[in-house]
UniProtKB/TrEMBL annotation:
Family: Belongs to the zinc-containing alcohol dehydrogenase family.
Protein name: Alcohol dehydrogenase catalytic domain-containing protein
Domain of life: Bacteria
PROSITE patterns linked: ADH_ZINC
Domain Alcohol dehydrogenase-like C-terminal: start-end pairs: 178-287
Length: 348
């Protein structure tokens, strides 16, 4: 089968690999119908994910059809259309029982797919702990509608949940890339008083204005002035940092009011520092970490009900055989790209 493979820092290649087999009674084999490229894939390519294993098939954002299941898999059966969770988790350890599935202590726990074990930018993928990692797609929901459920949309849902957004809040979202938009969609579900999106790229600002006209937009150089004008207490009640740069990390705490919550959603290429003397007296609460993607069934229900729509994010579609072109487009942010869908060649 075709599989996009991490060779070494700076190099991915489309290779012919053996089709995966069941290795455990809890495994499932999924025929991938649609996958997508994530910024985290670029982090692997750039060498920013030390735990990523050379030789693995990349990709952790996908949907497909179950082909085979192990004897202990009861949640899905062959023929089911499913989303694949970005994380594999056992469901029984301390962290899983408390909903902290990103920290699952199983050897395959946490973000493994496309990082430590073969992922889904391929024709087939083996999914460990399939009872937890696969969710059936409702008949009314298309593959395209469900594509981001297991990763970028799960991230936005998790970020909005842990931020404890209240209806009287002013919420600032820094970054209007795909994860930022998914975070925006999930923050809108909380019905805060207002949401402000900060983004430096004009085309992404236009994207927000076109699809979410009720949201205020601003560029980084004006964000502090805009926040002061549209908040009651000198800053945002909740800040979600989804851009992942040194400058946006600084903006996040600068734009927060005293005693606000700052949620770090982004993954950074380098370490960031908290200038505690400058922040003294703001009494901020920082929330950070990897997504705990254990509410995919809830997200799928919201999509089926028409309350979440990520279809506008899919701006380009490529076949798996041309995935090099798709990566080049996505990495260089050409042609106003937001997200690229990659169609598997299986059955096409």
């Amino acid at each position: 089968m075709l599989a996009y493979t991490y060779i070494e820092k700076g190099c991915f290649e489309l290779l012919d690999k053996p089709k995966p087999k069941l290795q455990s009674e809890y495994d499932a084999i999924v025929k991938v119908t649609l996958s997508s490229i994530c910024t985290s894939d670029l982090h692997i390519k750039h060498g920013s994910v030390p735990r990523a294993v050379p030789g693995i098939t990349v990709g952790h954002e996908m949907v497909g059809v179950v082909e085979r299941v192990g004897s202990a898999v009861k949640k899905v059966k062959p023929g089911d259309r499913v989303t694949v969770n970005v994380e594999t988790f056992c469901g029984t350890c301390f962290f899983c029982r408390n909903g902290f599935v990103n920290n699952c202590t199983d050897p395959d726990g946490g973000w493994a797919l496309g990082c430590r074990i073969d992922g889904g930018q391929a024709e087939y993928v083996r999914v460990p702990h399939a009872n937890q990692g696969l969710n059936k797609i409702p008949p009314s929901v298309t593959d395209e509608q469900a594509l981001f459920v297991g990763d970028v949309l799960a991230t936005g849902f998790w970020a909005a949940r842990i931020s404890d957004i209240k209806q009287e809040d002013t919420v600032l979202i820094i970054g209007a890339g795909p994860t930022g938009i998914c975070t925006l969609l999930c923050a809108l579900l909380k019905k805060p008083r207002r949401i402000i999106v900060c983004e430096k790229d004009n085309s992404r600002l236009e994207f927000v204005q076109k699809h979410y006209p009720e949201v205020l937009v601003t560029k980084p150089e004006a964000v502090q002035e805009v926040i002061k004008k549209h908040s009651e207490h000198g800053g945002a009640d909740v800040v979600l940092e989804v851009a992942g740069t040194k400058d946006t990390f600084r903006l996040a705490w600068q734009c927060a009011r005293p005693n606000a919550t700052v949620t770090i959603v982004a993954l950074y290429d380098e370490a960031q520092s908290l200038p505690l003397p400058d922040m003294y007296g703001k009494n901020l609460t920082f929330k950070t970490g990897g997504v705990d993607g254990c509410e995919c069934d809830v997200i799928l229900k919201l999509i089926a009900e028409g309350r979440i729509d990520t279809l506008p994010l899919i701006t380009h579609t490529y076949p798996l055989a041309r995935i090099d072109e798709a990566y080049d487009l996505f990495e260089n942010k050409r042609d106003q790209v937001m997200k690229v869908a990659v169609r598997s060649s299986v059955g096409l």
